[in-house]
Write a structure and sequence with these properties.
The complex is a heterodimer of chains A (402) and B (138). Chain A has 15 helices and 13 strands. Chain A is globular, with a radius of gyration of 21 Å. Helices cover 39% and strands 13% of the residues of chain A. A 5-stranded parallel β-sheet of chain A has the order 11-10-9-12-13. Chain A has 3 domains: 162 residues, 2-Layer Sandwich (Aconitase, domain 3), CATH 3.30.499.10; 103 residues; 119 residues, Aconitase, domain 3. By secondary structure, chain B is of the alpha/beta class. Chain B has one domain: Phosphohistidine domain (Glucose Oxidase, domain 1, 3-Layer(bba) Sandwich). Chain B has 3 helices and 8 strands. Chain B has an 8-stranded mixed β-sheet with strand order 1-8-7-3-4-5-6-2. In chain B, strand 7 and strand 8 form a beta hairpin. Classes of the chains: A alpha/beta (402), B alpha/beta (138). At the A-B interface, helix 1, helix 2 and helix 6 of A face strand 2, helix 1 and helix 2 of B.
Chain lengths: 402, 138
């Protein structure tokens, strides 16, 4: 590829990957099972994609598309992080169409791993979106580094990944034993799991935590609530739960036989994390945002059932974010109608975190169940609580918090 | 006498300019206004200063996956730094510098955050990995 036999695009993409490989001391490239690509919506990017297309760019591994920022049902009302003008819509559409031409599956979500971007233990991937990367490394046992949008494209185009970092066994061992055995999980909410993970990310930094003392059975949503904040407060690429995640049949296996450092987590620290995640102590709010990462079928159903017969407070917006595949199911089941009848909006193909258009829509104080959104969503202040607390605030127009 | 530092040239090319040094990591998306090159991240030690045409020195990158595109866009808008020096690079700043063709060096034989001060005049040679620092007078 490097000599141009597969076209100019493959040559450019491989030359970038070779430079990454050299910078990290990777000895070889390995086949990629999956790439997940995204765009930053800078008009100048278009030039790069056009150059790649002219150079014959064609994705050589299974590649899915991150949200491209257009909710086709509510574009005027929702817009993008750069507003809702026809110009920005045109750029987003153009960049999207180029990724489609190269061969991306247009999923428009950050939970691609739940909707057909299927990975098995040992599969190598290059994905946009840190919550998905942590989930895939930890829960699926697949192997990927936190890589930027340019690298994701280069992997998609070449079908190859430089073998460094999380692709190597020696970098996947648990280094810090996080002991949660003193806590009562019977009353734990989604926000409690998020706050726990936010606290742990801060404590372990860029090391890999091994959780012990969690409930023996955990739901997909709980595992995702743990995965998502770890790379927000810290730079954690994966976690282990002995007896549950695939690379941790035992504590010894998780830590590679070495003795990990031990950290005890107390409920008081989880509570303190709430105050660190929230950026304001106000009790008025302009919006409730749920959907960073995008919500699952079960979460949409719970929200719809809670909202049945209720009404979102005057002057408060409720946005519930998911993928449009999930929305098709929600439409069929009647969940969308329940949410919208209450005055909420089921938004799709939209980033509810770093690329969220809350400030562009004039919002100032936003309540969320996501530490990740509270940290990244630009230009607004955040309140943090469980899905239930957020929905109650949407109905009453007041934040009661904890 | 200028100080000579040697490191690893990750993106080739030569550039020179006044140094701008940050001990904190930098995010280009959300952290820098792409139209002016001014750092807009609240509370950042470079807040209010322009990175345009400067030799930008910081430990490593932070922030989102779109940072490479931000550097590329800033290069096109002529607000990008002339060159970048990192203590230890990561792949997101690296791919941004490659795409924007900004000379880029890391792993210098002395800590650039200590040896180089904002306002020093710095020549960067990405081909050889060499950095020449002329201290600001006074």
């Amino acid at each position: 590829m490097l000599d141009g036999e597969y076209g100019a695009a493959a040559q450019e993409a491989m030359s970038i990957l070779v430079r990454i490989a050299e910078a990290y001391g990777a000895k070889r490239m390995v086949p990629a099972k999956s790439a997940h690509v995204a765009a930053g919506l800078f008009p100048e990017e278009v030039e790069w994609y056009e150059r790649l297309l002219e150079g014959g760019a064609k994705f050589r591994c299974f590649t899915t598309r991150h949200p491209w920022g257009i909710d086709y049902d509510h574009f005027e009302e929702v817009g993008t992080v750069y507003g809702n003008t026809p110009e920005i819509k045109e750029i987003a559409e153009m960049i999207f169409s180029y990724s489609l031409k190269m061969g991306a599956i247009p999923m428009g979500t950050c939970i691609q791993y739940l909707l057909g971007d299927f990975l098995l233990p040992g599969d190598a991937f290059s994905w946009t979106g840190s919550s998905g990367v942590v989930f895939a490394n930890s829960v699926l046992g697949a192997r990927g580094n936190m890589e930027g949008a340019v690298t994701n494209y280069c992997v998609a185009i070449t079908g190859r990944i430089p073998e460094y970092g999380m692709l190597l066994d020696e970098n996947r061992r648990g280094k810090v034993l996080v002991d949660c055995s003193g806590m009562d999980f019977s009353t734990f909410t989604d926000a409690d799991y998020g706050a726990l993970a936010f606290h742990v990310g801060k404590v372990v930094g860029d090391e890999i935590p091994v959780f012990v003392g969690l409930p023996r059975k955990m739901t997909l949503e709980q595992l995702r609530a743990i995965a998502s904040p770890l790379h927000v407060s810290g730079a954690v690429p994966m976690f282990h739960i002995p007896g549950l995640t695939p690379e941790a049949p035992t504590l010894e296996a998780a830590s590679g036989g070495e003795k990990p450092e031990r950290v005890q987590v107390e409920m008081s620290e989880v509570k303190r994390a709430y105050d660190e995640i929230a950026t304001t102590g106000e009790d008025r709010l302009d919006m409730v945002s749920l959907g960073c990462p995008h919500l699952t079928y079960q979460e949409i159903r719970e929200i719809a059932e809670f909202l049945e017969g209720k009404r979102v407070h005057e002057g408060v917006k409720l946005w519930v974010g998911t993928s449009y595949q999930v929305k098709v199911v929600a439409d069929r089941a009647g969940w969308t109608q329940k949410i919208e009848r209450a005055g909420g909006l089921l938004v799709t193909n939209l980033c509810m975190g770093p690329g969220a258009p809350f400030a562009a829509r004039g919002m100032r104080v936003v309540a969320t169940n996501s530490p990740r959104s509270a940290y990244y969503a630009p230009g607004v202040e955040h309140l943090y609580g469980s899905t239930r607390e957020c929905l109650e605030a949407a109905i009453t127009g007041r934040w009661r918090g904890r | 006498m200028p100080i000579i530092l040697r490191g690893r040239g990750l993106v080739k090319g030569r550039a020179e300019g006044e140094a701008l040094v940050s001990k904190q990591p930098i995010s280009f998306v959300g952290g820098v206004d792409p139209d002016t090159g001014v750092v807009i991240e609240k509370g950042h030690e470079l807040e209010g200063q322009s990175i345009k045409g400067r030799v930008l020195i910081f430990p490593f990158g932070k922030g989102t996956t779109y940072n490479p595109f931000a550097l590329f866009a800033m290069k096109k808008r002529e607000t990008a730094p002339a060159a970048i020096i990192n203590v230890k690079t990561e792949e997101i700043v690296l791919t941004g510098a490659i795409l924007a063709q900004i000379p880029f060096i890391d792993r210098l034989d002395q800590d650039p955050l200590r040896v180089i001060g904002s306002g020093d005049y710095v020549k960067v040679d990405g081909d050889t990995g060499t950095v020449e620092v002329t201290k600001r007078r006074g």
